[in-house]
Amino acid sequence: MPLDKTQLYDEIVQQAKALTEGEPDLVANLANLGALIWMRLPEINWAGFYLYKDDQLVLGPFQGKPACVRIPMGRGVCGTAAKLGKAQLVEDVHQFEGHIACDSASNSEVVIPFYHRDTLLGVLDIDSPATGRFDEDDLQGLQKVVDALEEALL
């Protein structure tokens, strides 16, 4: 019997904690978490991270097709999430003002900023070819994954 979203995210968070426990290296943790999300979430076509460097977002570890390398702060869903410091849940990216189409197959997106001691480190970015793929349950579950990452970096 398939898991419901709450159960699925509970498992993903437990796996995220196991993968990051005792590992302070950011890139190693991002690589494993991107792979974990890619492996466990259905109907996604990109899962990974952009890192905040020199007042822009720069491509970090990910799973999926090649992606945009640099995103200006405030541009697209990722740049908006980073600039506002607020997660973005976008049902239809084609309706998002300033959307950056790294992959024309992506139709919905969720982006969550992550921090170390109140300093922006980057964003978690997940795309789906399905319009309306992500909802509040996904946002809450993925926020818990980001929380596990932030805890590991303390």
Describe what this molecule looks like in 3D:
It comes from Lacimicrobium alkaliphilum. Pfam families: GAF. Belongs to the free Met sulfoxide reductase family. By secondary structure, the protein is α+β, with helices and mostly antiparallel strands. The chain has a single domain, classed as Beta-Lactamase (2-Layer Sandwich). The protein has 4 helices and 6 strands. It has helices at 5-20, 26-40, 76-84, 136-152, and strands at residues 46-53, 56-64, 70-72, 88-90, 108-116, 119-128. Strands 3-2-1-6-5-4 form a 6-stranded antiparallel β-sheet, sandwiched between helices. Helix 1 (5-20) packs antiparallel against helix 2 and helix 1 (5-20) packs parallel to helix 4 (136-152). The radius of gyration is 14 Å and the shape is globular. The N and C termini lie far apart (37 Å). 36% of the residues are buried.
Outline:
Residues 35-153 form the GAF domain. With 154 residues, this protein is an alpha+beta fold. The protein is built from 4 helices and 6 strands.
Any chance you could write out the topology, listing elements then pairs?
Layout: H1 5-20, H2 26-40, E1 46-53, E2 56-64, E3 70-72, H3 76-84, E4 88-90, E5 108-116, E6 119-128, H4 136-152
